[in-house]
Amino acid sequence: ARRHPRRSLHAPGSGGACCRMERTFIAIKPDGVQRGLISEIVSRFERKGYKLVAIKLVVPSKQFAEKHYHDLKERPFFNGLCDFLSSGPVLAMVWEGEGVIKYGRKLIGATDPSKSEPGTIRGDLAVVVGRNIIHGSDGPETAKDEIALWFQPKELVSYTSNEEKWIYG
Ligand code: ADP
């Protein structure tokens, strides 16, 4: 008999039945932090059934913000965006779960909150694209890069959640 239940303790990407376990980088931007939306946003990821594996409050430098958004450096809003991200505390997090990268983006909603569906974080809590309160990695490669940019490996906490057997069966 298998000694360990499916998915328990295995690190994402370690193979086996747990291979759909993923990690994504989620950040509450300075507007979300200043507006007191941390607990509201964190609770949506928690209640869904995802597992928090890293969290910290940081004020990124402008240079760090430029690294985070390097893909957008040709866009006209790049400078303002980087000024904004470095203007105050950002709540940086890593969330783990099956399909969390793609579904996390669904919870977040469309980039422009005027087009985000009601029920999504941006749809419910934000109004304009320049102040859309939250960031989430847009794919597995980005997730890996962003987690490595914002966190040291030792800051990622592996632990067993007793709820997992109720969430995944
Ligand atoms: P997302 O954050 O949904 O992945 P993008 O990667 O396209 O979206 O853009 C990154 C961030 O840049 C957005 O979340 C938003 O804060 C900002 N942004 C995008 N488009 C605009 C715009 N037209 N004007 C101002 N800021 C923008």
Question: Could you characterize the architecture of this molecule?
Answer:
The chain has helices spanning 30-34, 38-48, 62-68, 78-85, 100-108, 121-125, 140-150, 164-168; strands at 21-28, 51-58, 90-98, 134-136. Strands 2-3-1-4 form a 4-stranded antiparallel beta sheet. With 169 residues, it is of the alpha+beta class. Helix 3 packs across helix 4. The site of adenosine-5'-diphosphate (ADP) has 9 residues, from loops.
Largest sheet: 4 strands, antiparallel
- Following the backbone from N to C, one meets helices and strands in this order, namely EHHEHHEHHEHH
Portion of residues in beta strands equals: 15-25%
The radius of gyration computed from the alpha-carbon positions, rounded to a whole number of angstroms, is 16 Å
Instruction: Give unreliable regions as ranges.
Output: 1-17
Query: What is the SS-derived class?
Result: alpha+beta
Across the major sheet, the strand order is: 2-3-1-4
Q: What characteristic shape results from the CA principal axes?
A: globular
User: Mean pLDDT score, rounded?
Assistant: 92
Helix content: 25-40%
Q: Helical element count?
A: 8
Bound molecules: adenosine-5'-diphosphate
Rounded to the nearest angstrom, the distance between the terminal CA atoms is 18 Å
User: What is the total tally of β strands?
Assistant: 4
Catalytic activity: a ribonucleoside 5'-diphosphate + ATP = a ribonucleoside 5'-triphosphate + ADP; a 2'-deoxyribonucleoside 5'-diphosphate + ATP = a 2'-deoxyribonucleoside 5'-triphosphate + ADP
Protein name: Nucleoside diphosphate kinase
GO molecular function, one term: nucleoside diphosphate kinase activity
Binding site for ATP: 29, 77, 105, 111, 122, 132
